[in-house]
Amino acid sequence: MQKYPMTVVGEKALRDELENLKKVVRPEIVAAIAEAREHGDLKENAEYHAAREQQGFCEGRIQEIEAKLSTAQVIDVTAMPKTGRVIFGTTVDLINCENDEELTYQIVGEDEADIKANKISVTSPIARALIGKEEGEVTVVLAPGGEIEYEIAEVKYI
Q: Exposed, middle or buried by CB within 10 Å (0-12, 13-18, 19+), for 143?
């Protein structure tokens, strides 16, 4: 069985979502279905059908999260030795060698990736180019617009 890497924060977010779905959303949907049933004829009851559809989405998401958590390999980067090498979970400060633009990315699991929060998937081209490199090294990223050279300014284990 393949394990999927996940940060401690990513695992907590999934566990929180799962708990909310099971303890808040699911009971609300059950109550909505019960209320809609009281309105009579189920064939023409739009509220009943909408609630049943919501229930299907909710149960599907619960199963999806439980499956992800069962195959998660939670990696706590703060417990790793600070070697200056880019690994899963580290936060990397980069300098674009062409225009001196500074970027910061955290390398996270696929489910945690959020470019607006500067979190990139471990499977992204940038992360693949960075993994295994060390502070001070220059790496080439194959981007859609061509090759981009980045210098690794700092690797943080936070």
A: exposed
Asked if residue 85 has pLDDT above 80, the reply is yes
Q: Which pLDDT band, with edges at 50, 70 and 90, does 124 fall under?
A: very high
Pairing of strands 4-7, 72-75: parallel
Q: Would you say residue 142 has pLDDT above 90? A: no
What does the alpha-carbon distance between residue 93 and residue 116 come to, in Å, rounded to a whole number? 16
- pLDDT band of 38, cuts 50, 70, 90: confident
SS (H, E, C) the chain: CCCEEEEHHHHHHHHHHHHHHHHHHHHHHHHHHHHHHCCCCCCCCHHHHHHHHHHHHHHHHHHHHHHHHHCEEEECHHHCCCCCECCCCCEEEEEECCCCCEEEEEEECHHHCEHHHCEEECCCHHHHHHCCCECCCEEEEEECCEEEEEEEEEEECC
pTM for the model stands at 0.81
